[in-house]
Automatic annotation (TrEMBL):
<keyword id="KW-0472">Membrane</keyword>
<feature type="transmembrane region" description="Helical">
    <location>
        <begin position="26"/>
        <end position="49"/>
    </location>
</feature>
<keyword id="KW-0812">Transmembrane</keyword>
<keyword id="KW-1133">Transmembrane helix</keyword>
<protein>
    <recommendedName>
        <fullName>DUF4405 domain-containing protein</fullName>
    </recommendedName>
</protein>
<feature type="transmembrane region" description="Helical">
    <location>
        <begin position="69"/>
        <end position="90"/>
    </location>
</feature>
Length: 173
C-alpha cells in the first residue's frame, strides 16, 4: 500500500504464496494495524505527552524547598514512575530499532556470501587402507607370485615348482 502511495517500483509480493482467503485476511489486518497505530500515535501526541509535561513540571516544583516531606516523597514517586515508564518505552524502542538494523546488516552479509564464488578443486582424503598402500612398496617378482597364489590358489601355480608342491605352504602339517 505504501509503495503505491509513494509510486515506488513494484517488488515481489510476499503474500502471493498464501491462499486467497488468507491473503484477504492479512491485507485487512494490515489496514486495521495501520489505523490503530495512527490513532495511538495521535492520542500520544495530543493527550499523553501534554499531560505528562504538565504533571512533570508541577511535580518538579514540589521537589524543592518549602514543601513537606510527604509532598517531596509523592513528587519523587511520580518522577520515578513517570520517568521509568518513558525510559522503558525509549529502551524498548531503541532495542527494536537496533535489532531491526542488525537483521538488515545480517541479511546484506548473507546475500554477499550467497554470491557464487569459484571453488577450488575438491581434494578427497585417502582412506586409511589407501594410505597404508602408499607407504608399502608393491610386491614384485616372487612376492607377486606368492600373493597371487594365495589370492587364487587354483589359477596360479609357481612355474619353478612341481605342480603337486605348488600349494604345499597352504597345507597345515
Amino acid at each position: 500500500m505504501a509503495r503505491r502511495l509513494l509510486r515506488r517500483t513494484q517488488a515481489v509480493d510476499p503474500s502471493r504464496e498464501l491462499p486467497v482467503h488468507e491473503r484477504r485476511a492479512v491485507r485487512g489486518y494490515s489496514v486495521v494495524l495501520v489505523m490503530g497505530t495512527t490513532l495511538c500515535l495521535a492520542f500520544l501526541a495530543t493527550v499523553t505527552l501534554p499531560a505528562d509535561v504538565r504533571l512533570f513540571a508541577r511535580v518538579v516544583t514540589r521537589l524543592g524547598p518549602g514543601h513537606s516531606a510527604a509532598q517531596r516523597l509523592d513528587a519523587a514517586a511520580v518522577v520515578i514512575a513517570l520517568g521509568g515508564i518513558h525510559l522503558l518505552w525509549a529502551r524498548t524502542w531503541w532495542r527494536n530499532r537496533r535489532a531491526r538494523k542488525v537483521r538488515e546488516i545480517a541479511e546484506v552479509r548473507r546475500s554477499a556470501r550467497a554470491r557464487p564464488r569459484p571453488r577450488p578443486p575438491a581434494v578427497h582424503p585417502l582412506l586409511p587402507y589407501q594410505q597404508s598402500a602408499l607407504r608399502t612398496p608393491p610386491p614384485s617378482g616372487a612376492a607377486m607370485g606368492r600373493a597371487l597364489a594365495l589370492a587364487c590358489p587354483r589359477r596360479f601355480t609357481w612355474p619353478h615348482l612341481p605342480q603337486e608342491n605348488a600349494h604345499s605352504h597352504l597345507q597345515k602339517g
